[in-house]
Amino acid sequence: MTDRREDSKTGLPSDELSAARRFKIALIAVGIVATLGAVYFVMRGSVLTEPAGITQTGTEARPVEVESQDILWLDLRRLPAELVGADGKVIGSIFIDLRLAVQGAADQAYLSQQLPEVRLAILKALASESVGRKDAPLEIDYDRVAAMILSAANRSLDRPVVHEVSIPETPDQN
Question: How far apart are CA 109 and CA 77, in angstroms?
Fold first, then answer.
């Protein structure tokens, strides 16, 4: 007669319990390896094999002139602005969506990092004067507002990073 010991928690014989544990550990290990492999293959495809601006021919690496950096856009959504009449009374309010253009990924990262200060400067500029045209206060003066926002954004930064401001012509009105 064989003397089999049983686990008090599961009621299984101890040798079957250890086999079940080994199987669970093996499944966890396979899952971890599969996840790491998937991350490796995804990241390998997104990493550049050569630094930007350098091409490799044979055994030598030679610099290549980069003609222009990419224009990248950063979106700001639903910034409040007021429409003020000729008599100085508020006649309406709107929400404006903006797109700020920067040159290159470094400027985009810098602007993203400084975005709270830039957003505050833009909000102050929008609150300081009406966004409506002088002759028709219910219509937005897109050129003047874009210039005002461009100036406010670059003043809030230590260097001119924003090169262009784009405002879509269908703001949300209240």
Answer: 18
